[in-house]
Amino acid sequence: MTMGANVSLTDLSENVGSAIVSLGWSSPTGEGDADVSVLLLDGRGKVRSDADFYFYNNPVAADGSVQLLGKEPTGDGSEDRISFDLTAVPAEVERIVVAASRYEGARFGELDDLKVTLADAGGESLLRFVIEDAGQVSAIIFGELYRRGEEWKFRAVGQGYESGLAGLATDFGVDIEDDEAEPGTEPAQEPALGAPDAPDAPGAPDAPAQATLQAVPAPRPPAEEEAGPRKRAARPRTAKKKVTPPRPPVRSLAENESWRQARLFPVSALKNDRDRETRATSVLLSVMAQVPRFGRRLTAPFGAPSGRMETFTEVSLPHGDTPRRPDGVIRVERAGKLWTALVETKTNGNPLKSDQVQAYMDIAARRGYEAVITLSNDVALEGSPLVDVKIDRRRKHQVALWHLSWAEVAHQAQMLIRHEGVGNAARTWLLQDLLHYLQHDNSGCHGFQNMGAAWVPVRNGINDETLCQGDPRALEVVESWERLIRQVCLRLGGELGQKVLPAQRTRRGTDPGARRARLADQLCQEGRLQAELRVEGAPGLLTIGADLRTARLRTSVEIPAPEQGYPLTWAKRLVRRLAEAPADLHVETLVEGGAGGPRGTLERLRPEPADLLPKDGSTRITGFRLSLFKSMGSGRGSAESGFIRSVDDAVLRFHTSVVAHLDAPASGRAAAKERAAV
């Protein structure tokens, strides 16, 4: 049905003595919800008394004509069902309004798939009405049942109220306390509705007539026009606390704080690496199949089509005298064609084995599969494969080898849960349980967490000045640093819901191996590791540097000077922007020619922003550099005192306390300059 259309129930079914009306919606976050309400109206378009208002505190009519059945989960979200016994509706009731409302400032525009359906007594669905654009309203009339002689008809309304449930109920004559609704509040939108006495056709709007059926009744008549004082209903009036009740905080029912919530994917039974690999593969592949958007997000970069996905574990495939059992298989069907990939999984930092991957590549080539996907804590780098495999170029069918890090899996789950949504509460819950599993200490799926065996010797060699250029251990540390930076980008991007990518200041097409060799030589000479991150919406590149000589981390960002205004205004504005930044933040003025400009801590500059200006007023300011320093971890792992944890914490702290408070580039000049440099 369309807005304003109406239809006779007897034209749709012979079994309409009772009906089930369902109001449904979905939430991108999986948490949004609304409450339904029903109002029985007489010929004046008003409730006879407050007892004709049915909602969560008054769900059942004494005569059985109305019963709120509660919420039920659906494949796309949830729905509220209402049962109507139309034969028991009192004769003086001419209309039944079906509405829903949100609470605590929430709006229907935040929900998706708003719809109302009606089914007959046998459960057969008779009609459906979808509300396309709800807007910023907190209450909506979805539809109404009304009498036409001896039969009942349904009208699709879709009218919103900015004043919420209180305003809607007041307009229909429910007695609300004075502070519940503002006098004269008008509905957010008024669809054109037809007249009840005019002939109409199923599914079409009512024909115009002299008398118009008002979906929203006229304001109450003045006191002098009323026959007498209004008679109070026997039932207590609807109070404010019933119409817009405060939602109490959710209280745990556990008797002891040490109790742990039951999980769909438990980790307590994992005793060895084989158990971890088997459980992690099964958990991941099952969620990929049940949450299509998540499965698509992981497989699309590997060339998989968008289609129906099926996943399998512990599959036995023939290979010579001994069958091979890959950890999993992913199959996607699109237009009658299959895309198939074998999956090899490692957890707990265990390396991939070349012979295993080679066997799966050969099996996939013989069977016509498209890809082999390896999954481990490690991060793949361009030009530095994790496993060496031989590809027979003589084969007509070639198999692609792809790698996926557990950090990338967690990143995609976090992006969907916290920022993008999957439009379904059950699927959101599945992703949340998967993310909890991956982040548990016993799962073994923690991403890159070890700088390698060369980390400690290289640090000692730098401190002792015995590390020579060309030492292969320095190259190993540079590769580990690059893997760490890629993982830091994933974690920061998951927190922000934005793209965070490593920036390489090299020309496109440069050999990655030659670039890393050059960085390894710089590490031997200067004792420093450095990387730049491009954060969407940030005013400049975020730089992270590790000085192995002083064991200190430096996070910084350079802000270009505004194109207009005065330097003193720039300095004052910058200090105001950094009101919530740490007091030990270092601020340095960048001047033309590369010479060092004035600098100082934010604590010293707050009372005197003019100290950022060069003494020579003719020197041109090109920008400002903001930096934070902290001690770096000494261990090679991701423990509390490890180097990996310290880098993660430094980048996240710098962005949340400094970069997040800065203005994005106001013009394309800074962005163009940044692109030219990267």
How does this model look, in words?
- Strand 15, helix 5 (354-367) and strand 16 form a beta-alpha-beta unit.
- The strands form 4 sheets. A 7-stranded antiparallel sheet has the order 4-3-7-10-11-1-12.
- It has 14 helices and 24 strands.
- The protein has helices spanning 164-171, 240-243, 273-290, 292-299, 354-367, 406-420, 425-439, 455-464, 472-496, 512-526, 567-577, 602-605, 643-657, 668-677, and strands at 5-8, 18-26, 35-41, 53-54, 66-73, 78-85, 95-101, 112-119, 125-131, 139-148, 151-161, 204-205, 308-313, 328-334, 337-345, 371-376, 400-405, 500-503, 528-535, 542-547, 552-560, 586-591, 596-601, 621-631.
- The chain has 678 residues and is α+β, with helices and mostly antiparallel strands.
- The longest helix is centred in the last third of the chain and has 25 residues, at 472-496.
- The chain is 25% helix and 25% strand.
